[in-house]
Amino acid sequence: MIGQTGRHYAVIGSGPSGMACASALLAAGANVTLIDSGRDLAPAHQARRAMLAELAPAEWSAADRAWLTRDLFQSGNKEPVKRLFCDGFMYEGAEWTLEGGKLSKGFGHRPTQALGGLSRVWGAALKRFLPQDLAMWPIPSGALDRHYTEVENLLSGSLQNASHEMALPLSPQAQKLLDRWRTRQAALTELGVKVSPARLAVSHRCRLCGMCLYGCPYEYIFSSDALVRNYRDHRAFEYRPGLRADRLEEHEGGGQVICVGDDGTRTTISANRVFVAAGVLGTPRLMLVSFGTWEDRLTLHDSQRFLLPFLTSTSSVRHAPLHTLTQIFLDLEGSAIGAENVHVQIYTYNDFYAARIRAALGPLGKLAGSLADIAGRHFILAQGFLHSRDSGTAQLRLSGPQAHPVLAITPELPARTRGVVRNIWSRLGQAGRLAGMLPLVPFAETADIGAGYHSGAVFPMTRTPLSWQSDALGRVRGLSRIHIVDSSVLPEIPGGPVTLTIMANAHRIAAETAALDRG
Ligand SMILES: Cc1cc2nc3c(=O)[nH]c(=O)nc-3n(C[C@H](O)[C@H](O)[C@H](O)COP(=O)(O)OP(=O)(O)OC[C@H]3O[C@@H](n4cnc5c(N)ncnc54)[C@H](O)[C@@H]3O)c2cc1C
Ligand code: SF4
Question: Comparing 407 with 519, which gets the higher pLDDT?
Fold first, then answer.
């Protein structure tokens, strides 16, 4: 490894935050070792994906389509668990993080040990935080702007996109809704609702094959494993998969990562600094173990997710050319609903709606097959996210034997959250009616805490950190060479897509720290 500065940094985790951090460190001329559990898609599944990517969607056989969409409900969960080509590798290894390897009741965030982290299955929705969302951050106003731009360039480069706008053609249903809403602008403004086409980290070469929720055979949806592949030939970059960071130590002039390999062997990696991006649960576990703290409880803040289905008169044609990620963003002003701002994503036709209706009907589902298909084509789903101030939390503490500590997780849902969500359903229902949609409130749901995968703020960045808080460079009080760069250090979680901001902040921490070391 031969970076220009001669400094060597370790980064833990290859998810979006780890890769944004690694990219800034490499740009600063440092040597980077990426430590990653690195589980990946089974080779047979990878080979079949590659074979499908050689063909146009119209050339895929019925068996190919069935392979892509199979087993969606196999998990037996309240709602389907998103996997990649029906491979659940991104959720393997939970026994390292969770008590009994299982989620606690009422908690829905699955930890990952995957190459690329949860970006292997994410929805690719992008949004910059608004200035008011950054008000509590211990950084000067505008300090994140440059890093947002750098990260957007990173995403565009990885997707070979010509523009930064990342807008895809809307589905016919979404276009109709947007047109109707645009003619009712004044009424929308009165409701405190802003409507815009969704912004997505998806290549402009998208083939509109409608398979997005099962996995993109063409790899046109950004996932940070692509950045790992891009950097593999970089002479200052070393990728160490199959290593799980188990404990961190800090000493004068550097930090050490004590890792456990897949075969149980221990390896120690030393570096001038360590950047931790092990995700919503991986990072708190690593910090509690490294501080040897069994008594303390940490608070995980969630941006609670809710779902509200609608029926619309506009139907979609099965296998029409469209993508099945979010199509439209709705932003609800908090003051209009007695809460903080709320972000809502509108999904139009998706073949899994009919499958879900059939599953919900149980044995009757088989009989009502074509009816479910027809209903599915008139179905629109709104998925929303509350601000963390209006959402539930989860208490995290260490549990299990000293040799193998895991997290015990206790979710807590404040009574007020349900009231806030009911207000939003009502406001959203009014907005939906303006576009000719009928809200199906009896089928609306509030998801388990963490199930929306927008959580963190366990070690919030502040100007004067107290115990378990961090400074503007992600250093928990008492540490100077170990930096947390994922959502764990966000001061709070506004409603809406978080990953672009997590990446921008990771990029900022890495760039500013490297500059500090250059003197
Ligand atoms: C179904 C789904 C849809 C989503 N949709 C969106 C969306 O549309 N927009 C949006 O903004 N966000 C979305 N998200 C959230 C988004 O995926 C996360 O915000 C993002 O992945 C967080 O990135 P991260 O790098 O901080 O952590 P993670 O993605 O969790 O990555 C953690 C990394 O750390 C590694 N790791 C963990 N523990 C260790 C260890 N001990 N040692 C070594 N390596 C370790 C893992 O292998 C992994 O590479 C979605 C998430 C899911 C699951
Ligand atoms: S529609 Fe989705 S799955 Fe198909 S090419 Fe576009 S991004 Fe990929």
Answer: 407
Vertex 179: Cα angle to 174 and 181 (nearest 5): 95
Alpha helices of 81-193 — where are they, by DSSP H? 145-159, 172-183, 185-191
Q: Is the CB of 16 under 6 A from ligand 1?
A: yes
Which residue's entry shows tokens 């209706």? Answer: 357
DSSP 8-state assignment for residue 128 = P
Digit-coded pLDDT (tens) for 336-360? 788 899 999 999 988 776 666 666 6
Cα 398 to averaged position of ligand 1 atoms, centre (Å)? 21
Distances (CA, A) of 80 to 69, 95, 418: 12, 21, 23
Phi, psi of 152 (to 5 degrees): -60, -40
Residues 6 or more apart in contact with residue 29 via CB below 8 angstroms: 3, 4, 5, 236, 514
| Domains of the chain, earliest start first | 8-518 (3.50.50.60)
Q: What's the token pair of residue 110? A: 């699955």
Q: Is 278 in the pocket of ligand 1 (CB under 6 A)?
A: yes
Nearest ligand to the CA atom of 277:
1
Residue 189, both tokens: 């403004």
Is the CB of residue 211 less than 8 Å from the CB of residue 218? no
Angle at 199 between CA 149 and CA 126, to 5 degrees: 60
Q: HEC profile for 239-270?
A: EEECEEEEEEEEECCEEEEEEEECCCCEEEEE
Q: Which atom of ligand 1 is nearest to the CA of 486?
A: 26
pLDDT at residue 2 tops 70:
no
Q: What is the CA radius of gyration of the chain?
A: 23
For residues 273 and 509, the answer to whether their CB atoms sit within 8 Å is no
Count Cβ atoms below 10 Å from residue 253 Cβ, excluding itself: 9
Is residue 445 within 8 Å of 297, Cβ to Cβ? no
pLDDT at 321 (0 to 100): 87
Query: Whose CA is closest to atom 37 on ligand 1?
Result: 278
> How many degrees, rounded to 5, is the angle at CA 458 between CA 457 and CA 462?
65
Segment 217-227 shows an average pLDDT of 96
* Most ligand 1 atoms within 8 A of CB, residue of 79, 119, 126, 301 to mutate: 119
CA distance 74 to 76: 5
State in Å: Cα 153 to ligand 2 middle: 21
- The Cα 201–Cα 502 span in angstroms is 15
Cα of first residue to Cα of last residue in the chain, in angstroms, is 22
Q: What is the DSSP letter of 475?
A: P
Task: Output b/e per residue, 73-108; b: 16+ Cβ within 10 A.
Answer: eeeeeeebbbbbbebbbbbbbbebbbbeeebbebbb
The closest of 422, 418, 494 to 452, measured between CA atoms, is 494
